[in-house]
C-alpha cells in the first residue's frame, strides 16, 4: 500500500452530509445525507478512517453533541462541525457564495451582486473553517476542500503553518478571464485557489479558463501544461491543476432501476400518461438550469409540430432550493405562470401538455421517472457537470431513452457524441431536437444509449475519487 493510501482523508465542505431537524413529536433527529458527494466520498472516508468537516445546517439550539454520538461507529468516519450564525449564513452562503460567485462562475453577470459586507463575512467564515480544520488535522492527513464556498481556506491553513497536502475541487464551472475580471475580489480568490497543492475542475474548458486567468493576472507564473494535469510555478511554489469530471455510482443506479419497485412505478407512470412519449426535466430550482427556456422550447414544439399534440408530455420536476433568495422566488413564480399559460393554450380533455411538480421525489420515484422517460431534456444555461444527465443514462436500463443535453453542461464533454446536443438559448433548435428525438428509430436510440451507458459506467464516481487522490 502506498503512503498516500495510508493517509487519513479530511473532507471539508460547506454543509456536512447530515440533516438535523425535529421529527413529528418535536424530538431532534439526525439523518445521514444521500447526495452525490456523500456517495462518492463516504466509501473513501470509511476506508481511510477519515473525517468530514462542515456546517451542520442547523441553529445552535440543536443538541448536536448528543446527536452525533455514535455517528463514527455507524458510518465509519467522524464529523467535526463549524457552527454559523444566521447572519453569517445570510452573508457568506446566501450572499457572497450564491449571489456573487455562483452567478459569476456560471457566466450570468446580470444576476451578480457585489456587496463588500458579504465579502468580509465570506473571508471570516473561510478563516473559521480553516481554524477548525487546523485544530483537528494530524501530521499525515490529506485535506480535501470542496467547492466555491471555501476558496480561501487554503490561505489561512498556510498562515497557520499547516504542512499537509491541500487539495481543492470546484464543482461549478470556472469562467473565462473576461468574466472573472469583473469580480472586485478577483486577486484574493485567485491567491486563495493558488494556495492549494492541487486544484481540480470538472472539465478541460474550466481548467483552461483558470490557467488563462493565472497567465493574465500573474505573468511571472510559469505553466507546464500536460495532458492530465498542468503545473503552475512561481518563486519556488507550485500548484497542480487538473480536470476530473465528477460522476455517479453507476452500478447502484443500474441495480436500483432494475428493481421490481422501480419497474412497477415506471410502468404505472406510463399508464397514467396514456402511453404518450414522456419528456423529462429534473432540476433544482435555479436560474442556471434553463428551465423557463426549456418550457418555451416545448411550447415552440407544440406550435411547430401540431401532429405531436396528445402524443407527447413534458414532465418537469423542480426541487425547491435556496428559497430564501428573492431571485429564486421570482423564478418559481415565472415557472408557475409559464406552465399554466401553455397548458391553458394547448391542453385538451385527457391531455395536459406539461406536468410540473415542485417538490423533491423519493429516490425510487426519481428512478422510475428516469426509467419511464423516452426523452430526457437537460438544458442548463451553464452547469459544472450535471449529474442528472448521468443518472438518466444509468437508469435507462431498457436502453431506449434519448438524452438531449445542453452544450454548456460539463457533462457534454464526455457524453456529447451520443447525446443530442443543443444550445439552450436556441428555442427553435431545442424544439427541433425534441422533434428529432420523438421520431428517432429504435436502433439509433439503442445505439446511442449503449454508448452513453458505457461511458458513465467506465467513468464512474469511484474512478473520479481515485484519479483525484492519485494526482495529489
Ligand atoms: C452541483 C453543480 C455538479 C434532483 N431531483 C431530485 C433529486 N435530485 C438529485 C439528483 C442529482 C442532484 O440532485 C442534482 O445534481 P446536479 O449535478 O444535477 O446539480 P447541482 O445540485 O447543481 O450540483 C453540478 C454537481 O454539483 C456535482 O459536482 O454536477 O454541475 O451545479 O444527484 O439525483 N433527488 C431526489 N429527488 C428529486 O426529486 N431524491
TrEMBL record:
Q: A Pfam family in this protein?
A: Glyco_transf_20
Q: What metabolic or biological pathway is this protein involved in?
A: Glycan metabolism; glucosylglycerol biosynthesis
Q: Name one GO cellular component term.
A: cytosol
Question: Which GO terms are recorded in the biological process aspect for this UniProt protein?
Answer: trehalose biosynthetic process
EC number(s) per entry: 2.4.1.213
Q: Which Gene3D superfamilies match?
A: Glycogen Phosphorylase B
Membrane-spanning ranges: none
Q: Name one GO molecular function term.
A: alpha,alpha-trehalose-phosphate synthase (UDP-forming) activity
Which keywords has UniProt assigned to this entry? Answer: Glycosyltransferase, Transferase
InterPro entries linked: Glyco_trans_20
Q: Please give the catalytic activity noted in the UniProt record.
A: ADP-alpha-D-glucose + sn-glycerol 3-phosphate = 2-O-(alpha-D-glucopyranosyl)-sn-glycerol 3-phosphate + ADP + H(+)
Please indicate if the UniProt record lists Oxidoreductase as a keyword: no
The free-text function statement in the UniProt record for this protein reads: Involved in salt tolerance by producing GG-phosphate from ADP-glucose and glycerol-3-phosphate (G3P), an intermediate in the synthesis of the osmolyte glucosylglycerol (GG).
What family classification does the UniProt entry report for this protein?
Answer: Belongs to the glycosyltransferase 20 family.
In Swiss-Prot or TrEMBL terms, this protein is called: Glucosylglycerol-phosphate synthase
Amino acid at each position: 500500500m502506498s503512503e498516500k493510501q495510508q493517509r487519513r482523508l479530511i473532507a471539508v465542505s460547506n454543509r456536512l452530509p447530515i440533516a438535523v431537524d425535529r421529527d413529528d413529536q418535536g424530538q431532534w433527529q439526525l439523518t445521514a445525507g444521500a447526495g452525490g458527494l456523500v456517495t462518492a466520498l463516504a466509501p473513501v472516508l470509511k476506508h481511510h478512517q477519515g473525517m468530514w468537516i462542515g456546517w451542520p445546517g442547523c441553529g445552535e439550539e440543536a443538541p448536536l453533541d448528543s446527536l452525533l454520538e455514535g455517528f463514527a461507529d455507524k458510518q465509519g468516519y467522524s464529523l467535526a462541525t463549524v457552527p454559523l450564525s444566521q447572519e453569517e449564513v445570510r452573508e457568506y452562503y446566501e450572499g457572497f457564495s450564491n449571489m456573487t460567485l455562483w452567478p459569476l462562475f456560471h457566466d450570468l453577470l446580470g444576476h451578480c451582486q457585489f456587496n463588500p459586507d458579504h465579502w468580509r463575512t465570506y473571508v471570516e467564515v473561510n478563516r473559521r473553517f480553516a481554524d477548525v480544520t487546523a485544530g483537528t488535522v494530524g501530521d499525515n492527513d490529506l485535506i480535501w476542500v470542496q467547492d466555491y464556498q471555501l476558496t480561501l481556506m487554503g490561505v489561512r491553513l498556510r498562515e497557520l503553518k499547516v504542512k499537509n497536502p491541500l487539495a481543492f475541487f470546484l464543482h461549478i464551472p470556472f469562467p473565462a478571464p473576461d468574466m472573472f475580471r469583473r469580480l472586485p475580489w478577483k486577486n484574493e480568490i485567485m491567491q486563495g485557489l493558488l494556495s492549494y497543492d492541487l486544484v481540480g475542475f470538472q472539465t478541460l474548458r474550466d481548467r483552461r479558463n483558470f490557467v488563462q486567468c493565472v497567465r493574465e493576472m500573474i505573468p511571472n507564473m510559469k505553466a507546464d501544461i500536460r495532458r492530465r494535469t498542468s503545473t503552475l510555478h512561481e518563486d519556488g511554489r507550485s500548484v497542480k491543476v487538473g480536470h476530473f469530471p465528477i460522476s455517479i455510482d453507476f452500478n447502484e443506479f443500474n441495480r436500483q432501476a432494475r428493481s421490481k419497485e422501480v419497474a412497477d412505478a415506471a410502468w404505472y407512470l406510463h399508464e397514467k400518461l396514456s402511453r404518450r412519449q414522456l419528456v423529462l426535466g429534473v432540476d433544482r430550482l435555479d436560474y442556471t438550469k434553463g428551465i423557463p427556456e426549456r418550457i418555451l422550447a416545448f411550447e415552440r414544439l407544440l406550435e411547430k409540430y401540431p401532429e405531436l399534440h396528445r402524443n407527447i408530455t413534458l414532465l418537469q420536476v423542480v426541487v425547491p432550493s435556496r428559497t430564501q433568495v428573492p431571485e429564486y422566488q421570482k423564478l418559481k413564480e415565472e415557472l408557475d405562470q409559464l406552465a399554466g399559460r401553455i397548458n391553458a393554450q394547448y391542453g385538451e380533455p385527457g391531455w395536459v401538455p406539461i406536468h410540473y411538480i415542485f417538490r423533491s421525489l423519493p429516490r425510487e420515484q426519481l428512478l422510475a421517472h428516469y426509467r419511464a422517460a423516452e426523452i430526457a431534456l437537460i438544458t442548463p444555461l451553464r452547469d459544472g457537470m450535471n449529474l442528472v444527465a448521468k443518472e438518466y443514462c444509468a437508469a435507462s436500463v431498457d436502453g431506449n431513452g434519448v438524452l438531449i443535453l445542453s452544450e454548456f453542461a460539463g457533462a457534454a464533454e464526455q457524453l456529447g457524441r451520443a447525446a443530442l446536443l443543443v444550445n439552450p438559448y436556441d428555442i427553435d433548435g431545442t424544439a427541433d431536437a425534441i422533434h428529432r428525438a420523438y421520431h428517432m428509430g429504435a436502433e439509433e436510440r439503442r445505439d446511442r444509449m449503449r454508448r452513453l451507458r458505457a461511458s458513465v459506467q467506465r467513468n464512474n464516481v469511484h474512478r473520479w475519487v481515485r484519479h483525484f487522490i492519485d494526482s495529489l
